[in-house]
Amino acid sequence: MKTLRNEDIMQKSIADRIITESILVLGLAETAHLTALFLHLSFGTCSLIFALLVLARILVGAGRYFFVHNRREKDTKKTCLWRQYPLGVAVTGALILFQIIWNSQMHIPYTAGDMTGETVQTMLSTDTIYQINPFTGRAFLTGMPMRLKVLMLPTLYACICRWSGLSAITVCYSVMPVCVLLLSYLVYGRWAAYLFPEEGKRQVLFVLFVALIYQFGAYSTVTDSFLLFFRGSQGEALRTCVLLPYGLLCCLKKDWKRTVLCILAEVCVVWTFYGLGFTALTVGVVCALRLAKKVYDRRKKV
Amino acid sequence: MIRLLESWGAGKGSFAENGQYLALFLVVLLFLCLTEKRVNREFTFFSGVLVLLLLCPFTARVLLAYQTAFFAHETVWELLPLTALLAYGMVFIFCEITAAMHAKMHAKNNKAAGREKRNRVYEILTIVIFVVVLFLGGSVSTAEAVTEKSVRRDRLPQEIGEVLDMLTIPEETGVLLLAPDEVVAWARLYSGNIIMPYGRDIDEVELTAYLYDTYTEEVRGLHDWVQGDLPAPENAEDAWLLEKTYVEYCRDEGYDYLIFTVERANNDLLAFCLEQDGGYEILDRTDAYVIYGQNKESAKQEGL
Description:
Structural class of chain B: alpha/beta
Distance between the termini of chain B: 70 Å
Helix content of chain A: over 70%
Order of helices and strands of chain B: HHHHHHHHEHEHHHEHHEEH
Oligomer: heterodimer
Radius of gyration of chain B: 30 Å
Number of strands of chain B: 5
Number of helices of chain A: 14
Strand content of chain A: under 5%
Largest sheet of chain B: 5 strands, mixed
Shape of chain B: elongated
Number of strands of chain A: 0
Radius of gyration of chain A: 21 Å
Strand order of the largest sheet of chain B: 2-1-3-5-4
Largest sheet of chain A: none
């Protein structure tokens, strides 16, 4: 096994920052959600707490940018893929644009096995969190399992609805799936930079192939493509197309901070086995393989 | 044991379904393992181990148990870094093919300018071949099956959106609605102020597992009555009594709107009972549905 370790790979790009900040927003939403859930606060209060947390994060981020980032040395050289490979970038961009338009406008929402949209509507109309049955609009007789109550995506979407004035159906089935799709492309953009450092042409090709796989791969309800195009607002799509590949990438790059972030984010968006989700499993397998390799190499030397 | 194998087989089948991407993944993995070029061995090895874990029914079962065992077997296939490895392998194969072509051109000793142009043409042709392979290996049949053609700007199906637009929904009080399954499926997405006795997919196991609440026999009866699925009584008098009972129940419970499919609304007994009861009047109709609303005058008289 050979690990590519290059200064360029380790360098944090804007894409890395966007992905990390998105994951942090999930964490902030979870904090606000759990606070409201356990203190029996209204959804309005939860939305306010979340807004304050986001504001605090923005202030901290801006402060760090101005006081820390500006003092760092500027990057020595930056390559523009668009100038070097205009055709490849244009074709990939056009394909992604088509997917965004199709995903956000051109088909009815796929709601089988999901109740995110109804839950968001219920939160907005009743100002409560998980107290009303989202399917009927009546108060719960028995309630909802705690393992599902801790999931915060509906709260996040409802907050976005409240702040933006957009309808629940638009946020859940147009805006968020597009955000997840774009995040997914950012993740695979980072994969391209990791797998093909300083090879712009191969990087563009890699992202083009990813776009093509997405385009033609919606043949089963669990493929990445289907999850992105039809179940984009669900935690499963976020897990499979963003958190899992990014967690694996960070693990391969030995960027443990971001790896842990991905594992924690998965717990917030999908029902996992007591917090041990797919990302944790993936990281576990990679670590086990590394350990096995180390033992094998040591024995070989002896 | 047989059940385990069946479940595993169904899960793999469901993941592969009409597409050949799993087969392509295995081919690409084999290529990456055999090639001596500069390949990211750690990622390739990880993918290989994971595919073995998923292909073996016993380890796949362990992985499923790890993922709470609540989900179907196909869910664990999400673990496979299919997109990343497939794209990675395809870039490598592309580079191998084009490098071989370049070498051939170089051997022929063509002019530099023409060689460059031809190289570009070959590269584009190779990409086209890859697009065809991905197109043939994939499929859009599942996507097609779940995509409805007529969709409104607000993403609702045209027909259902039309019906729901006809309801007057006060924000403060909301409305009580009784409707067939197709309308129920979208009603709570349309507005959080619509209250119903039962939600969509009343019999779907996966959805009901999300909530502890279950539906009573009374609610299930109401659902079957709206759908027209209740077993027909033997004589006409019993049939009339049955319709009358449910119409009275709806009036007493204060349902603001009753929506029936045109076929159901054309049932003479139902139409007769609704007319005789006087609690509801036809508000509007579309090609597929008839909408009954509370008869305000009748309600006033009752109040007096």
